[in-house]
Every structure is written in C-alpha cells, then in structure tokens.
C-alpha cells in the first residue's frame, strides 16, 4: 500500500498485559495503528465503534476464548482478518481456527519479527482484495453500457444521465436524429433500473395505423371492433412493473395523444370497447427524431403531453458531433461483423479511417454499421482500404484550382500562392462551420490541433 493510504488498524487481544506491552510497541513502530483489548468481550465492544483491518488474538483466554472471538468477527465483521496467537499445546486448535476462517496463526512466545511478517502478509492481502473489488467494479462499469460504444464527452454525459435516471421511475424523453442510438439508450435505462427483471415492451408509434395502435397500447375487449374475437391485453398491461418504450412518439395521432396523456396523469385506462378501469405500474420512455418543441408550436403535438413526457430529456447528438467516437465504432463493428460471419478479424487502413471520420453520416451510427457490414463481406483483403469505401464517402471536396494554370515568363511565387490558397480554404471551412474549429478541421482533413496551430502561425482571425 502506498503511504497515502490510512494506516492499517490492528486490534491486539490478550489477557496478559506483559505480552501486550511488548507487542503493541513493536507493531506501532512499524506504522500500524494499534488498539488493545484484555478480553474477547472488550474486543467485541471496541469493534462496535471502530473497524479493524486485523485482529491479533490469543487463543486461550478466560471467558471468551480466541475461537469465540474468531466466530464473532467472521460473522459480524467479515472484512476483518483474524490471526491467532497460540501456545504449543494448542496448535491443533489453532489449525482448527484456520479452517474456520482465521488468516494464520503464530506460536507463542512469538517473536516480534514473526508477527510483523504475518501482519505484512495480511496487509498485502487486504490491498489485493481491495484492488480486486475495484477491478470488479470497473468491469461492471464497463459492462453496464456494454452495447453503447463511445467515449466522447457528449456520450459520457449521456452515460451519467442514464445512471442517475435508471434509479428512478421518472419518464424519459430521448431525442436525436435517426440512427443515433435512442433505442439502445432506452434499453440501457431499463436494464439498469430496478425493473430490469420485468419486461421492456417497445412499440413503434409511427409504424402502426391509429386504430390498431390504440388497441396495441391499451388492449381491447371481445367485440370492440370487427376482428376483435377475444379480449386482448395491450402493451401497457403486458409491461406491468416494467417499462414501455414509445418509439417515434412524434408521429402519434392527436386522438391517441389525448388518451396517452390521461394515462400518464392517472396511470389508469380502459381497453378499447371496455368499461373496466385498469391500473398498471409502468415506466415510460419515449423517443423521437422530430423536434417536438416545433411540433408543439405548429400544433401537431399537444403541449401538455410534451411536458408530461419531457421530465428527463436525453438528447443524443448526431455522430458527426461526437469527437473521437467514429474510430471506436468502426473497430467495434469490424470485430462484431467479422465474428458474426466467421471471418478472421479485418483491419482498416489509416487513410480509409480518415475518410470515415470526415464523412457527415446523415444516417448516423446505423449508416456506419451497415456500411461496415457491407465492407466486411465485399472487401477481399484483410485490410479495408480507401478503394473499398462507397463512392459517397470517397468523394473529395472539389479542388478550387483550375485544371491548368499558365506560368508566365516572369515565373511565380509558388510558396506564396499555396499559402494564399491554404488561407482561403481555412477561412472558408471556418465560415462554413460557423467558426467551430473542430468541424472546420474535419472539413479540411486536419486534426484540430493542427488547425489551431496554423491559425496562430498565420495570425488568421476566425470569421464571425
Ligand atoms: N453508440 C452506439 N454503439 C453501438 N451501436 C450503436 C450505437 N448507437 C447506435 N448503435 C446501433 O445503430 C443502430 C441504430 O440504433 P438505434 O435503433 O438505437 O437508433 P435510433 O436512434 O433509435 O434510430 P431511429 O430513430 O431510426 O429509431 C442499432 O443497430 C444500434 O445497435
């Protein structure tokens, strides 16, 4: 353990004060924080107020003996390490103590050196154990959102919201362009919540005609409409104690918006064609790629429903705005799709990856994944190169220079011309991206720091 850790605490339990005196001084000198107890009873009392890393106890004591002390600590303070001190006559009992969970034993009269050695080992054990706990929790951390790839600040902020919101039953509204991973996030919220053992029931409100959607959501009674041959539970009932994921909520008809609003307010509903009021306990996660605020303004979406849904908003940014996530996703999908197809793992050439990083990805992660899947199948070599990329991604910004430039007798200043051209292109990229250096750098095929260095060197002003 490094010196910055708090000192290891040791409780020495012995009924003979002389032994105690010598032991305590010696152990303290080595940097341990030592407490003493003259009986098992006192030890238990002390452990109520302090937590000890290590208990060093005599085996034979009047009243509670060392085995009793051991039994108490393994029960009440399983983290504490117990070491037995024993005379030759009771070595067998000490061995028995080891079987019952003691860390080690020492025979009396124990030399201080021996004691320190055992303490050192115990300390090492404690340190390894806590490292192990840490590693395990880091693993959990990693696996918690194992299907969502991305380390950009934007994604990290989303992970933090997921974590916080998963612990509650609050309604969540996930917005973002198509293919940004909204459904994946809805899944993460559900599977990290206390409802994880109960169903997550998704429904795409945009894909189902209104009449059908109503009965899908709320269920129907026999005879409610032609074709309703028997009673049927809706998704809300099926999701009882779980989560309902209402995808494409922005496409819901005004009539259903009213019914959904009532459900959100009262948590009760009637099946289509039914009069019995049904109560269910579900958490609602809704998602849309529409700008709901705009939809509210134009009267397509009820404002009151919008407020009910937008309790915790999660906005998923488009892929082109997630700094550094594209290479992570590319490698992840390459691995996944090669594995799925039983192919040896393929790599991607740096230059090809550069193109992918510069592309705008209007279809976001879905488009990226589909493209990688196709390339895995189509590319014949084990490294994907620029020629394997679809033409739309390979296209370059058209060169602003004409095909042929005359050079007169007087010659030209090549350096100056190139410098001017470079300046113009940099300014154009900055103008196009509203001065956002990150995006401008991408347009220019530079990394951000290179662009910033160039701006500084050339003393260029970022256009307003
Ligand atoms: N961060 C990510 N890491 C790994 N895979 C992702 C990520 N984001 C999206 N995907 C994958 O991309 C595809 C599209 O994601 P998803 O369906 O969650 O998007 P969406 O925003 O709900 O899309 P839509 O609005 O069109 O319904 C899925 O196959 C999903 O697994």
UniProtKB/TrEMBL annotation:
Magnesium in keyword set: no
Modified residues (4-aspartylphosphate): 58
Domain Response regulatory, first and last residues per copy: 9-123
GO biological process: phosphorelay signal transduction system; regulation of DNA-templated transcription
GO molecular function, one term: sequence-specific DNA binding
Keyword Hydrolase attributed: no
Pfam family, one: AAA_lid_14
Keywords: ATP-binding, Nucleotide-binding, Phosphoprotein, Transcription, Transcription regulation, Two-component regulatory system
Gene3D superfamilies according to UniProt: 1.10.8.60, 3.40.50.2300, Homeodomain-like, P-loop containing nucleotide triphosphate hydrolases
Coiled-coil ranges from the UniProt annotation: none
Residue ranges annotated for the Sigma-54 factor interaction domain, each copy included: 148-377
PROSITE patterns hit by this protein: RESPONSE_REGULATORY, SIGMA54_INTERACT_1, SIGMA54_INTERACT_3, SIGMA54_INTERACT_4
InterPro entries assigned to the protein according to its UniProt record, in alphabetical order: AAA+_ATPase (IPR003593), AAA_lid_NorR (IPR058031), CheY-like_superfamily (IPR011006), Homeodomain-like_sf (IPR009057), HTH_Fis (IPR002197), P-loop_NTPase (IPR027417), Sig_transdc_resp-reg_receiver (IPR001789), Sigma_54_int (IPR002078)
The protein, known as: Nitrogen regulation protein NR(I)
Source organism: Desulfacinum hydrothermale DSM 13146
Organism ancestry: Bacteria, Pseudomonadati, Thermodesulfobacteriota, Syntrophobacteria, Syntrophobacterales
């Amino acid at each position: 353990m490094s010196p910055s850790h708090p000192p290891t605490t040791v409780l020495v339990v012995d009924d003979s004060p002389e032994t105690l005196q010598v032991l305590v001084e010696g152990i303290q000198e080595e940097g341990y924080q030592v407490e003493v107890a003259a009986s098992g009873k006192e030890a238990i009392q002390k452990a109520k107020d302090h937590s000890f890393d290590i208990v060093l106890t005599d085996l034979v004591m009047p009243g509670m003996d060392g085995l009793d002390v051991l039994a108490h600590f393994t029960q009440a303070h399983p983290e504490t390490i117990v070491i037995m001190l024993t005379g030759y006559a009771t070595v067998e009992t000490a061995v028995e103590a080891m079987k019952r969970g003691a860390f080690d034993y020492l025979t009396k009269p124990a030399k201080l050196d021996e004691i320190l050695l055992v303490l050192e080992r115990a300390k090492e054990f404690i340190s390894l154990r806590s490292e192990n706990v840490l590693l395990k929790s880091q693993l959990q951390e990693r696996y918690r959102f194992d299907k969502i790839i991305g380390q950009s600040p934007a994604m990290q902020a989303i992970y933090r919201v997921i974590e916080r919101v998963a612990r509650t039953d609050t309604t969540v509204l996930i917005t973002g362009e198509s293919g940004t991973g909204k459904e994946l996030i809805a899944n993460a919220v559900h599977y990290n919540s206390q409802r994880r053992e109960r169903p997550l029931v998704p429904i795409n409100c945009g894909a189902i005609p209104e009449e059908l959607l109503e009965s899908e959501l709320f269920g129907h009674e026999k005879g409610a409409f032609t074709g309703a041959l028997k009673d049927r539970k809706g998704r809300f009932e099926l999701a009882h104690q779980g989560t309902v994921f209402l995808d494409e909520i922005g496409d819901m008809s005004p009539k259903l918006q009213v019914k959904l609003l009532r459900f959100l307010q009262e948590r009760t509903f009637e099946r289509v064609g039914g009069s019995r009021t049904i109560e269910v306990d579900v958490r609602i996660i809704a998602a849309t790629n529409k700008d709901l605020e705009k939809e509210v303004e134009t009267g397509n979406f009820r404002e009151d429903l919008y407020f009910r849904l937008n309790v915790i908003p999660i906005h998923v940014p488009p892929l082109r705005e997630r700094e550094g996530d594209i290479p992570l996703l590319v490698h992840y999908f390459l691995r996944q799709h090669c594995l799925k197809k039983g192919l040896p793992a393929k790599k991607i050439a740096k230059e090809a990856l550069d193109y992918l990083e510069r592309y705008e990805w209007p279809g976001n992660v879905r488009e990226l994944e589909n493209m990688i899947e196709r390339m895995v199948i189509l590319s014949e070599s084990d490294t994907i190169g620029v020629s394997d990329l679809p033409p739309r991604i390979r296209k370059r910004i058209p060169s602003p220079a004409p095909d042929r430039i005359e050079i007169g007798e007087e010659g030209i200043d090549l350096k100056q011309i190139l410098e001017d051209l470079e300046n113009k292109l940099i300014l154009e990229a900055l103008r196009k991206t509203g001065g956002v250096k990150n995006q401008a750098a991408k347009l220019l095929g530079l990394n951000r720091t290179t662009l910033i260095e160039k701006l500084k060197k050339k003393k260029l002003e970022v256009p307003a």
